[in-house]
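Async update (no meeting this week)

Hi team, since we skipped the sync, here's where things stand on the single-chain job. The sequence we agreed to prioritize is pasted below, unchanged from the tracker. I ran it this morning and attached the output directly underneath so nobody has to dig for it. Comments welcome in thread, and please keep replies under the output.
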Amino acid sequence: MNTNSMKKVLVTGGTVFVSRYIAEYYVRQGFEVYVLNRNTREQSSGVKLIQADRHDLGNVLHDMHFDVVVDTAYNATDVNLLLDGLHSFDEYILISSSAVYPESGIQPFAETANLGLNKYWAKYGTDKIEAEKALLSRNPNAYILRPPYLYGRLNNVYREAFVFDCAFADRKFYLPKDGSMKLQFLHVEDLCRFMDAILENKPENHIFNLGNKKAISIREWVELCYDVVGKTVVFENISDDVEQRKYFPFYDYEYYLDVTKQHEIMPDDIDMAKGLKEAADWYVHNQNAIMKKPLIEYIDCNF
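Output:
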C-alpha cells in the first residue's frame, strides 16, 4: 500500500482472527489503524479503539475521515448501519465469502456465477449475499472479496488446530474416505496483500474471488499439518456412512473458485507449509484462543 495515499484505516471488529489480523497487519505497515468494537475482548497493540456497537453508532464516526474502511459485516443490516454512521471515507472493502455460491452451481465458480443458497453454509451465505447487495446499492465503487477457507496465525476456528492436536498427541488420523476431496485455502496475509494490491491498482473489477492457485486434497493437507510440527501421520480411512463433520473439521463438500482475476493482480501465494508452520507455532502458545469442538471426543467414543 502506498504510504503517501493511505493513512487512516478503519477495521470493523479487530479482535478475532480475520479482522484482528487485518488490523495488526496495517499497524505493522505504519498506518493509523482504528478498530470499531464493543471492547469486550483484548485489543491489539497499536490500534486506536472506537468503542461502540455498530448497531448503535450515533454520531461516533461523524467527525472522522478514513482513507479505507475494511468491513467484515455479516449481513445487510450491518452494512447499512455502518454506512449510515460513517461521515467520510474514500475506499470501502467488504470481506464477503465463497459461501455465496450455491453448491449446485457450475465449478469453478467465477465472480459472475449465480449467487444463492448453499446448503452447507445456509444463512451465513445468504446473509453475505444480502450484505453485498446492500453495499453495492449504496456504493457501487466498493470492493467485495470472496475468500475460501482462510488460515494462518490467529485462526480461532478448530480446523488446522484440530490436526495439530492430533499430531502433538501422536494420534493416528481418521480420514474421510480415500482423502482425495480437495479444498481451497488462502493465507490471511494474502488477503491483506491483495487489499494492498487493489488499493494501489484500483482495478475496474470490484468483485474478486480469492484463493490459492491450487487446491489441495484433505490427505495432503493433513500430511502438511503433521509435517510442520515434526510428525508423520498414520491414516485410518472412514467410510461415507459416518457423518464427516463429527470427526473432521470440514463439510463433505468440494468446491473450486476461479481466482484468475486475483492472480492477474497478485501472482504469488504464501507457501502453505510456511503458513501452517507459522499457525502451529502460534497455536502452541494460544490454545485457549481456539473455539474447540468435540471431534477427538467423538473419535474416541466411536472409532
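Quick observations from my side:
Residues 122-138 form the longest helix (17 residues).
The chain has a mean pLDDT of 96.
Reply here if anything looks off.
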